[in-house]
């Protein structure tokens, strides 16, 4: 893993947290995570697949052992929050549970399904779908020329923009924000970015990269600041492609001062916790609100959110240290 990008995983997980407590208007973290996954997986596995030193089965086992244990644990923790719904519509809730267990909820264009139980798990459903296609894509994308990759990316962007003009508003949230078939474009964009950068030598510009990193940050901030000027449907998908691609590409090179700051131990540690932080944070906030409402506690929102944030970090650490990593190792030992 490229260290600066590893640390940035927590930064963008934190942005999702800020969105869920109402500070940020757009959840831009998903676009980052999908593109980053495409970029990093290409960085780690491309040569292995191209040289046939790695199998699709082995790849999916590695990805499954990292994602699924925490995914299923947070699903189980979310079930008590739905007890009332189970009592009213048991069949409906069981169907939702089955779709979540098999990571299929994001394929169902009904918010009651794709936001069921742990509401953030839909993105993991998307992600594992991308993983299943990655071994096929990684054997084909490297064969394309830079011009073909750029041209195809522009055509896909134009095609999605065209769809935005005809898809009914009631369907737009699922179709452009959740739909794994369309969000695959974000993942592939990261793969394309890796192809465009892998043979570029940056030594000549090393002294300028702090400036480039600042520009990349300002570009992303600028797009976010200008977001209210654009339709929501555009911001579900392609609006953040350009600043996010520039951002990942610049920080992947790791030649600026900000990149060096991101490689300190604290940031790398938080980067390791990012997956847990992402999957736990909304559940913990929901339980906190349930507790406050049940006991009718008149607590200021910030007096509630602040301890929640600390609790999320603590739970994420325990989860990573005593559940995610041990279970990942055991599963990989069983499958060797």
SSE arrangement:
Layout: H1 3-20, H2 29-50, H3 56-78, H4 83-88, H5 90-101, H6 111-114, H7 122-140, H8 146-164, H9 169-178, H10 180-197, H11 209-226, H12 232-235, H13 241-253, H14 257-262, H15 265-294, H16 301-335
**Can you tell me the overall shape?**
globular
Approximately how much beta-strand content do the residues carry? under 5%
Structure class: mainly alpha
Strand/helix succession: HHHHHHHHHHHHHHHH
How would you sum up the major sheet?
Answer: none
Radius of gyration: 20 Å
Q: How many distinct helices?
A: 16
What number of structural domains do the residues give?
A: 1
Describe what this molecule looks like in 3D.
The chain is mostly helical. It has one domain (3-197, 219-335). Helices cover 76% and strands 0% of the residues. The protein contains 16 helices and no strands. The longest helix has 35 residues, at 301-335. The chain is globular, with a radius of gyration of 20 Å. The protein starts with a helix and ends with a helix. The model has no long low-confidence stretch (mean pLDDT 90).
